[in-house]
Design a protein that fits this description.
Layout lengths: L1 E4 L4 H12 L4 E5 L13 E4 L5 H10 L4 E4 L6 H6 L1 H21 L4 E7 L22 H20 L2 E7 L1 E3 L17 H9 L6 E4 L11 E2 L1 E3 H16 L5 E5 L5 E2 H12 L5 E4 L8 E2 L4 H6 L9 H13 L4
Parallel strand pairs: 1-2, 1-4, 2-3, 4-5, 5-6, 6-11, 7-10, 8-13, 9-14
Antiparallel strand pairs: 9-12
The structure holds uridine-5'-diphosphate (UDP).
Length: about 325
């Protein structure tokens, strides 16, 4: 059985859906602090918090767990700059508790949600996995710390892991069953779509003076379903004996904040109001993946390579939700 921490969250719930569609046995572990109960698609569910060791104990005692996918974490750059304590507690201590519970129960396979935020401002774009790691914000630092801790656990205790460094997870389940529901929402595409829906007055662009063609930050938006498939491929690679490693998951193309807003205008047909604001502390100017290793070694092939198509799936879901 696969334990999915954060299986009620955005990427975790999409991954649970992918696993269930392939007939895999999964149990979701989620505190429902960020996750939502309706997004738990598995029958097996433990409501628990990684910061309470007894909750983890309960999950590991109740189920025959042979591998773990670990999504449960806080994931907003701006929030991490304002509330680093929450990030270090949830993302670092929570993950250490999980690693220790796995060790105690002899569970030796782990897929970890990492992030492009581990790199900081890149010297080289597209960014290869062996690029220098100099995260610019507490969120990225927690992810990099945990990659290093996993490498140490792997070496000493024989746990094998694959860290998947997502660039910008985007889009939603094309069947409309699952969505992106952060509270408060700080991510670009859902905010822009909320402006289109009249739920916000405007989108504020954080910084228009970056050294990029239109002055706004460039990111690599990868569809959440493609991320989900990559997790299954990574788990199967571990099952086939792969060594511990990390992979970038992005499509290898960057879009500026202005281009994302333009895409949302095209998809929604609505003229979205835009304001210009200060840079958001902690933001690198450009993050674009070199995803060739995941493509070659995991045989991962992102299905969604067009930003409008990605935004379309997010739009279909977001306009159907009542706020
Ligand atoms: N962004 C923005 N206005 C917003 C939210 C985000 O201009 O209200 C920018 C942000 O500065 C970054 C990009 O959009 O350059 C993507 O941000 P997001 O938080 O979605 O993802 P991140 O890149 O932080 O993982």
């Amino acid at each position: 059985m696969i334990l999915i921490t954060g299986g009620a969250g955005y990427v975790g719930s999409h991954c649970v859906k992918e696993l269930l569609s392939r007939g895999r046995d999964v149990v979701v572990f989620d505190s429902l602090d960020q996750g939502v109960r309706e997004a738990v698609l598995s029958e097996d569910f433990v409501e628990g918090d990684l910061l309470r060791v007894e909750d983890l104990q309960r999950a590991f005692d109740r189920y025959e767990i042979d591998s773990v996918m670990h999504f449960a974490a806080l994931a907003s750059v701006g929030d991490s700059m304002r509330n680093p304590q929450r990030y270090y507690e949830n993302n670092v201590i929570g993950t250490l508790n999980l690693l220790n519970a796995m060790r105690e129960h002899g569970v030796k396979r782990l897929i970890f949600s990492s992030s492009a935020a581990v790199y900081g401002d890149p010297d080289l774009v597209p960014i290869p996995e062996d690029h220098r790691k100099l995260p610019k914000n507490p969120y990225g630092r927690t992810k990099w710390m945990m990659e290093q801790a996993m490498a140490d656990y792997s070496q000493a205790y024989g746990v094998r892991y694959i860290a998947l460094r997502y660039f910008n997870a985007a889009g939603c389940d094309p069947e409309g069953q699952l969505g992106e529901n952060h509270d408060p929402e700080e991510h670009l595409i859902p905010i822009v779509l909320d402006v289109a829906l009249g739920r916000r007055d405007e989108i504020t662009i954080f910084g228009t003076d970056y050294d990029t063609p239109d002055g706004t930050c460039i990111r690599d938006y990868v569809h959440v379903n493609d991320l989900a498939v990559a997790h299954v491929l990574a788990l199967d690679a571990l099952g086939a004996g792969a060594e511990s490693t990390a992979y970038n998951l992005g499509i290898g193309n960057g879009y500026s904040v202005r281009e994302v807003i333009e895409s949302c205008r095209r998809v929604t047909g609505i003229d979205i109001a835009v304001g210009e604001g200060e840079r958001r502390p902690g933001d690198p100017a450009v993050l674009v993946a070199d995803p060739t290793r995941a493509m070659r070694e995991l045989r991962w092939q992102p299905h969604f390579t067009d930003l409008d198509e990605i935004v379309e799936t997010a739009w279909r879901q977001r306009r159907s939700t009542v706020h």
